[in-house]
Every structure is written in structure tokens, then in C-alpha cells.
Specification:
It contains 1 helix and no strands. It has about 35 residues and is mostly helical. The termini are far apart. Keywords: Membrane, Transmembrane, Transmembrane helix.
Length: about 35
């Protein structure tokens, strides 16, 4: 069954995208201060 790893990979990718956007937002906030 290669469905579970696929769902896990997609979930992880989505999590990384959200974390990266949050990280960039925080860095921009710190740089503007």
C-alpha cells in the first residue's frame, strides 16, 4: 500500500510550506523593527 506514504508526503509538504511562509513573515517583521 503506497497510499499512506503519499498522503504523509503531501501533508508534510503542506506543513513545510506553511512553516516557511510563517518563517519569512517573522523574519520580515524582525528586519522592519
Amino acid at each position: 500500500m503506497a497510499v499512506a506514504p503519499l498522503i504523509m508526503a503531501i501533508g508534510l509538504c503542506g506543513f513545510n510550506m506553511i512553516w516557511y511562509k510563517y518563517y519569512k513573515l517573522v523574519m520580515n517583521y524582525k528586519n522592519n523593527k
